[in-house]
Amino acid sequence: MSGIVCETIGGPHQQVGEEELDSLVARKLGEVPLDGKKVVLVIPDGTRSCPLPLLLRTMHRHLIDRVGELTAVIALGTHSYMEPDEIARMVGAGSAGDGLDPEAQVKAAYPGMRIVNHEWADPDMLVHVGTIPATRIAELSEGRLEQDAPIVINRHVVESDYAIVVGPVFPHEVVGISGGNKYFIPGVASQEFIDMTHWVGALITSYSIIGTTGITPVRAMINEGAALIPTTRLALCLVVQSGSGEIEAAAFGTAEDAWAASAEIAAETHVNYVDEPFQRVISCMPTRYEDIWTAAKGFYKLEPAVADGGEVVIYAPHVTEVSETHHEIYDIGYHCRDYFVKQWERFSDIHWGVLAHSTHLRGQGTYDADTGEERLRLRVTLATQIPREVCESINLGYLDPAEVDLEALAQEPGTVVIPNAGEILYRVR
After folding, report:
1. 191-204 and 217-226 are packed helices; what angle lies between their axes, rounded to 10 degrees?
2. How many Cβ atoms from other residues are within 10 Å of residue 3's Cβ?
């Protein structure tokens, strides 16, 4: 263990300036014996609101002259690999008109530091660090799952002396509140344990777990797996004003302590309470969500605040596909948890992470195995470039985005339009 004591600055709806952040980072890194060490920063991908250029510049400034080697690994989980131009934009490296190629832009902005994708599909870039026995998984998952869990982690992270998470925390559909060790698992892990944790979350249901600040069964599994990583794990966890990048709070400490401090603040600042449940919601998805696999957060964050029989519309006219990497979703479609659980022999061979995503976007419901009838609490409609026939084939509704008038919809009784959806959780008071 590092022996570092967690320190938090800012708080709910406060604002942390650059100088205050810089002072925190300098102070806390100064307490860690990093000289000559191999250090990895574990950073978010483009699906999170985060002033990443500021954070990376700050970390780079205080590390590059001390450490022996510095690498930033993008915690993709099983999201699509980011292209060089996407990485350059995300980390604020140069501009399109400066004549440099994206990789040169990154090198110029962060001399001496590599920024790489978590190559989750490349076995050579993954290392087995241990196995959680089935009996222990049964304890952690509160009886929902019992099988051995191999923990396989990104090689850069495993071979480092220090791995420092740098990223925001938000309410999350699988783990309760994101961040902390979640940047290691699923962030830089292999697909097998990612699938296991996501399926346990699906068995609990997003509706029940999202926004929970404590150690949920999924968080317990993640913490247990992360503890097997043979490097010192630290974290700079942030609570960020969604969409603006303004930092409300920052905590630096162990991956567990910094997360716990930030999760309490996120639960206060990133949850909006409404007096009456919504009948119809138009979730307007920012372009950082490039497919339904990620834009589905527009449903997860609204589901608890929508009345029985209501509707959530995912309005994302820029989206053209359900998933670039998980094509099985086109075959199985979107269904409630019990649809899969009660037909397990049909679906057990599908990646459990795909099944989990399916249930998370379809929400609560029931399935009668005798009659084959599925009853779903809410309607889910896509207003994207995905054609009507595809939407209907995967058990979702279709709305032509060209016919959507957001201003007019906002005036309709029973309809609410949510801008910049996907990060703020809505609940009924």
Report:
1. 160
2. 8
How far is Cα 245 from Cα 55, in angstroms, rounded to an integer? 11
Q: How far apart are CA 365 and CA 350, in angstroms?
A: 21
* Pairwise CA distance, residues 385 & 51, whole Å: 29
Strands 232-240 and 365-368: unpaired
Cα 131 to Cα 146: distance, rounded to the nearest angstrom: 13
Residue 369 token pair: 């195995």
Give the residue extent of every domain in the chain: 7-269, 273-428
Model confidence, pTM: 0.91
Alpha-carbon distance of 291 to 148, in angstroms, equals 32
Per-residue pLDDT in tens (0 to 9) along the chain, 429 residues: 467 999 999 999 999 999 999 999 999 999 999 999 999 999 998 777 789 999 999 999 999 999 999 999 999 987 778 899 889 999 998 665 566 788 899 999 999 999 999 998 899 999 999 999 999 999 999 999 999 999 999 999 999 999 999 999 999 999 999 999 999 999 999 988 989 999 999 999 999 999 998 999 999 999 999 999 999 999 999 999 987 889 999 999 999 999 999 999 999 999 999 999 999 999 999 998 999 999 999 999 999 999 999 999 999 999 999 998 889 999 999 999 999 999 999 999 999 999 999 999 999 999 999 999 999 999 999 999 999 999 999 999 999 999 999 999 999 999 999 999 999 999 999
Q: Going edge to edge, which strands form the sheet with 278-284?
A: 397-398, 379-383, 306-315, 278-284, 415-418
Question: Which CATH code fits 7-269?
Answer: 3.40.50.11440
What are the structure tokens assigned to 92, written together? 């604020």
Superfamily of domain 273-428: LarA, C-terminal domain (3.90.226.30)
> Which residues touch 415 (CB under 8 Å, ≥6 apart)?
279, 280, 281, 282, 409
Alpha-carbon span 71 to 375, nearest angstrom: 48
Contacts of 228 (CB under 8 A, 6+ apart): 129, 130, 132, 151
By three-state DSSP, how is residue 216 classified?
coil
Determine contact, residues 176/216, Cβ cutoff 8 Å. Answer: yes
